[in-house]
Each structure stands twice: as C-alpha cells, then as structure tokens.
Amino acid sequence: MQIRVSSGDAASLETGALVVPVFSDGRLDGAAESADAAMGGGLTEVLASREISGKANEIVLLHAPAGKTKRVLAVGLGDRSKFEPQALVKYAGTAVRYLGKRNVHSIAFALPLEAQHQVRLCAAYVIEGALAGTIDTTTYRTEPDRPIVLEEIVLVTSAGSHEFEAHALEEGAARGRILGEAVNLARELAMTPANDMTPTILARKAEDVARAHGLTFHALDEDQMFQKGMGAILSVSSGSDERAQMIVIEYKGDPSSKEKLALVGKGVTFDSGGISIKPAENMHEMKYDMSGGAGVIGAMSAIAQLKPKINVLGIVPASENLPGPRATKPGDVVRAMNGKTIEVINTDAEGRLLLADALCYARELGATRIVDAATLTGAMVITLGHAAAGVMSNDDAFAQHFLSVAAKTPERYWQLPLYDEFSQTVKSEIADLRNSTGRPAGSLTAAAFLKAFVGDTPWIHLDIAGTAYVDEASHQAKGPTGTPVRAFVAFVEELAKAPALKSNGATAAARS
Rounded mean pLDDT of 250-275? Predict the structure, then answer.
C-alpha cells in the first residue's frame, strides 16, 4: 500500500473518494467547504436536511457530478470545541470500513483546520485509523467477505485557503504506519484461534518480529523454567499437552544506560478456567486471553522502528489453561520464582500466576521499571465496563506519568487504589499468598497479589479485561482492539525523553 502527501485543492484530487470532516455546528470550512463548492452545495444541502448532523462518526456519501474525485464521504467529528487529535483514528477507520466494503481502493483524507497546530500527530492518527479499518475477521471462511484492500492513502495538504506543511504530514504518516501495523499485528495474534496460536506458535511469531526488526530474542522452555523455580506458570500449563513458553524480546536503545523498562503481557493462548472451569457460554472468546502478550509483541515491533533512546524488555509468559489429568487442583500450593508460596484457591485465576513468575524474571533481567498488561479480571469489566482499563501501581508518580501520556492516545485508562488492606486480603492461612479472594474488590486484590512479586521496583498494572476486545464492529472490526499497544509505545517514547524520572515511593492513592 502506498501512502503519499498531495498538494493542491482537495476537491480536485484524482482518487476513489475524498473524506472530509464535518462538525456538529454545521459550519463548513477547509476541505469540506472546498468540496461543497465543487459539488454545487451538495454537502450544505445534506446538512440542512439533517441527513448528517456532524455527530462523531456519522457518515454520508455524495457522488461528485464532475471532476476527478468521484465520491466525497463526509464523516462527523462531533463538537468542534472538544476536538482532540485521537478522534481522527475513528474518523479514518470509519471511512475505510465504509468505502473499502464498496470496492474503493484509493482514499484521500482531509484534516480539519483544528489540526493545524498538531499536524504530525493528526496525520499519524489518520494513517493508524485507516490501517485499523482494513482488518478482516472472516479469513477462515471458504467464501470470506469482500476484503478491504487499500492500494493508496493520500493526505492532502490543502484545506481550502489553508495549507498544512507537507513535511509534517509525511513524518506523521510514517509514524502512523508503524503504529497502525503494530496495532494490527497485536489484533491478528489475539484473534487467531487457539488451535493455530499455541504458546509455541506465539513464541515463533515473537521471534519472527525480533528477527525482522533487529531485536534480541529468547524463550525459556518448561525445563528451563523448572530450573529457575517458576512453579507458578508451570502450575497453569500442567493441565495441557502444549508446553508453556517464557518469551523475551529485548530492545537496546541506550546501551550506555542501566535503566531498563519491562513491558510484561499475559499470554494465555486459551483459558478454559482449568479445574475451576468456566461456563460454556462465550468460552470461545478466551482465545483473546493473550491480548496483553500480543500487545507487548506489537509494541516491541513499533519501538524497534521508532528507535527511542531507552532500553526495553518485552516479556510474555505464554500458556494454555486446561483441565487435563495433571492439572493443578484448587487447594494445591505452588512456589513462584522468588520463593513465595501460593495457595491456588481458583484455577481460573491463572493469569496472575503467569505474571508472578514473569515479573520476577523481569527483575532478574535487570528491569528498573515495569508495566504489565493483562485481561486479568472480570471484575474490571464490572468496575469500568468497556470504557477504560484499570491502572494500579505501587508508585503514584510513575502511574501519574503513565496516565498523562496515555490520555493523549485513543486508549482510556483510569487509576484505582491499591490499599494496604488488599495486600492483607491476599494472604493465605497455609501459604504466603492465595491467588483468589472472592468477588469483593476482585481487580484490586489481584493487583495486590502481583505487587508481591515486584519488590521495590516501580510498577504499573493495567487490567485491560474490558478494553482488549469489542463485541460490535465500529471504526474497526469486532474482536481484539490492539490495546495496550498505543499506550505502551507512547509511554516508552516519553520515558526516553526523561529517563531520570524518579519514583516518589508513594503507594498509589485512591482515584475516583
């Protein structure tokens, strides 16, 4: 696919379709005004008739009566006064999914005038959103739906009487392509059925990414994990014939620095719940339980190409969780890599067992800061629905820094408290810890359990259970969303600018 920048009047471009933004105030300006004039007021007419009101992601298609541009697609951006660059992800994705299903292979995008002070960022979001719109979920059908094939994306420099800097658009487009492809990689890994995405296959995919981008790769097999005392992850994999993998990808962006950020992602390639088996309804969606791990692999591919000056570890503990004859039983006690013993109350609370050993391993490999992401608890969906992922941390300054960066991405995060009482709750009567404490504050006690494996290392836990996948198509296909690739990459780039950020040692305070 070709991505290019074109100068001149947007309405005169030779392209399959021109996409223009409209706001809910109904005022046409920039490229929308130019396109309206070229069509003899056609856009003004549909706005006046309320066929489109400018609400976010509303669309209306107009066929141009003359000229090189055959179609104009107006896409709503909502309230003009509340415009934020990340809204352009949905703007572009909505357009691609609509036009692509109608056999349009070349699409030109106009930016709103509100983008003129953040041209690079806005261009990046348009390309990222456009690429996200191309993903198809019917690849296993013998007669799949018509695929969305984009041969060309054009960013137009002209917005009526205003001009966007071509160089800034080109730089933004290049970044958007890297990030969009990384997000799609994570989505494709997560949506692949579990019979085609075992821990071994996931490790192979991670190695392919590492090889393609010059990253260091290794994966511990079960014998190596046993030698390191990783009894927590091995207790999860014991019920499956598929062998667990501890996948590690490393980016050395600043060899002179001892600072090293670890991104850790839960990689349960299928979760039946083990002996504490899940209900049959919707269990097929548990192929998505490795979305955190897929996000780490996708993020590492982008980081390698963007080349921030920082050292990053990507760690994915990968396993299946099945009720086989050797499966861990409720009441069993297992020992994690740091020597802590864990009473397994519920085998469906397996993600925290994988992460326990992965967090210990991150510290052994020299991580000075850690961020983990996992589809960890159904309780997080009850807490925040599908609107945001939960953030919990042992270091308030570190968490606040992450939140300030993530707020500028299309992903949403909200901080929740990690009180000392939760650490008391996860204590076991017969072991050091228990892996489940019941329904009350389930997401927070899960985070408190993980906290026991990071020591004094600044650490953030992201519970992405409600945001890792969606049940309905919107600006992208239903299924995995690619969360947390965007936040991971943005945070890595931000830390590269200020690597000396110090922890304040404070336990995360309550957020409401």
Answer: 97
